[in-house]
Structure formats: structure tokens, C-alpha cells
Amino acid sequence: MRILIIEDDLDAAAAVVRGLTEAGHEPTHAPDGAEGLKAAQAAEFDVLVVDRMMPNMDGLTMVETLRGQGDQTPVLFLSALGEIEDRVTGLKAGGDDYLVKPYAFAELIARVEALSRRRETGSVQTLLRVGDLEMNLIARTVHRQGREIDLQPREFQLLEFMMRHAGQSVTRTMLLEKVWEYHFDPQTNVIDVHISRLRSKIDKGFDRAMLQTVRGAGYRLDA
Hints:
Blueprint: E1 2-6, H1 10-22, E2 26-30, H2 33-42, E3 47-51, H3 59-68, E4 75-79, H4 84-92, E5 97-100, H5 105-121, E6 127-130, E7 133-136, E8 141-144, E9 147-149, H6 153-164, H7 172-178, H8 190-202, E10 211-214, E11 218-221
Parallel strand pairs: 1-2, 1-3, 3-4, 4-5
Antiparallel strand pairs: 6-7, 7-8, 8-9, 10-11
Helix pairs in contact: 2-3, 6-8
């Protein structure tokens, strides 16, 4: 996957480039918004990772310019500005996702790869499958080995997110933001409770557990 990293902090950029390269991707670095705009206009990339605050041209302006030119390459904003209004501003400027610094590199990788898959898919998915687990997004039903599984709305949202990220470690921060729409840690065990309930419904009575706890990282749904 070809990824353009637009970041004025050279040390941070070098770390991201190194990590993406080790993960098998092809990163390119641009040191500011103006250079990033030129690079994005000159070549095709699968995902743009854009720092929000940069010299010469800030990330918001750069992305707005690209969107105005019809460029729909997925954009992940990186920023130390983490208030809800900051995130909303980034998304309204044309960003597809927003990650607050400091962040775990595993989360950055997961979000970049998710943006790439979303672009490749193109059309809206109505059926998700992971192993023998199947979710119908239109009928709002879930089956495993042909057996219907009754889920509450939040459990359905949680499972949908896990299925869309099957095989990946999903952090608690990702679940709070994407499933509960919390942009802060509420300091409760809400995730643990829902994971426990979901695990009992999709794994209990089957010969193999799919919903795994990844120590120190989060959770993973494996086929």
C-alpha cells in the first residue's frame, strides 16, 4: 500500500515511515503542507496521513484543496488537538479519520489499513462474514453455523466493528470512539461488560472461541 506521510516533525515522520515500511507498506514523506500537496497531486496514493498543524500550508487547507480538485484519497489526520470540535473540523475539511497524538503505532496501522479497505470495497457492504460467523447489515441479524444469535443494539454495533477489523488487535480507545462515540475515557468497565456479553453469545456452545483478549492491546476477532 502506498502511503503519503505529511508531517513537519522529522523525528516523528521517520518513526512512522520506518514502522510502515516494516509492516510491508510503501511510505513517502513530505515535510510540510505545501510539499505534501505537490506530492499528492503528482502521484497516486492509497492513503494520506496528514499532520494538522504544519508550516507553509496547514493540513486542513491542504486537504480542502485536494477535495476541491476532486481527489478522494482517504485521509487520516494526526493532531495534538483532540477536542470534539477539533475532530469535527478535521472531518468537515475532508478527513476520513482523526487520530490524536500521542497514539499507539498499532492503532495508526489499523486505521490506515481500514481506510484502504474501505476505498477498495467501493460499494456498501450488506453482509459481513468472519469464519462461520455471518452478519446481515440490512436485516440486522447474526448467525453462527446457521444458529441465529440475538444481540442488543450496542452488542450489534460492537460486533460489526470487530468483524470489520477481523484479525486485527482493536484497542479500547478505538472501541470507545467508534462504537460508543466517546472521545475520552469514561473510566468505567462498559467495554469489559459488553465484550463479556458478546463473547457469551457468539462463542458459548461452539467448539472454538472467536473473540480473543489481546493482553496489553485490546481485543481481536479471529476466524
